[in-house]
Amino acid sequence: MLGILLYEDNDGLRESLVNLLALSRDFLLLGHFARATGVVKQVEELKPDVILMDIDMPGVNGIEAVKRVRTVDKRVQIIMLTIFDDNRHVLDAICAGASGYLLKKHLSDHLPNAIRQVMHGESPMSPGIARMIIQSMQEQAAKPATRAAADYGLTNREKEILAQLSKGKALKMIAGDLSISLDTVRTHIKNIYEKLQVHSQAEAVSKALNDGLV
To answer: pLDDT digit string (tens) for 111-140?
Structure first.
């Protein structure tokens, strides 16, 4: 059973998400809060597997909260919940250490599966968000390089998988293209995360593109 922490300042939506999570036997809601001011203490005490974080909260906003979480917990998966779908909010959240990014209008259809995906090393994102962020990263990578590709000790297979991820391909598609199992792909991605010192697929792709790995 996965332990979940929820941060959402809209009382009605927060209650709806509490009820949605209660429908699954896979999830245990450890706590739900309207503010993120106590996020560090709450994460240290409750030790969640997944955090659902509203990006736009008064006081400590979601992006700042993610930064604080990452100072004490590099393992926990963080899915941002937002009404925004612009590049700046997406990139800021990913750079802060978020693992996925869902628009609130899609939560009822996508949230339970997104939680399961993020625990398998994927970066769940609402329709359109993934393509937007990949394009943004590719535009950044297309700028004149200022340094040679960094050496992170990646194997040739790991570089192949990074290249596939940078094209926005799903894990099942990568497994089919490379004629390997889905579990093998996930194992390679876990090793990639460790070598690049990142926490999500989006962070891995960003670092790969910026550092000339693909």
So the answer is: 999 999 888 878 787 766 666 666 666 666
Over the chain, what HEC string results?
Answer: CEEEEEECCCHHHHHHHHHHHHCCCCEEEEEEECCCCCHHHHHHHHCCCEEEEECCCCCCCHHHHHHHHHHHCCCCEEEEEECCCCHHHHHHHHHHCCCEEEEHHHHHHHHHHHHHHHHCCCCCECCCHHHHHHHHHHHHHCCCCCCCCCCCCCCHHHHHHHHHHHCCCCHHHHHHHHCCCHHHHHHHHHHHHHHHCCCCHHHHHHHHHHCCCC
pTM above 0.90, yes or no: no
Q: Which amino acid is at 153?
A: G
- What dotted CATH number matches 2-127? 3.40.50.2300
Give me the CATH topology for the region 134-210. Arc Repressor Mutant, subunit A (1.10.10)
69, 39 Cβ separation under 8 angstroms: yes
Residues in the chain: 214
List, for residues 13-51, the tens digit of each pLDDT value. 999 999 999 998 899 999 999 999 999 999 999 999 999
Residue ranges of the domains in the chain?
A: 2-127, 134-210
Task: Give the span between the Cα atoms of 47 and 119, in whole angstroms.
Answer: 15
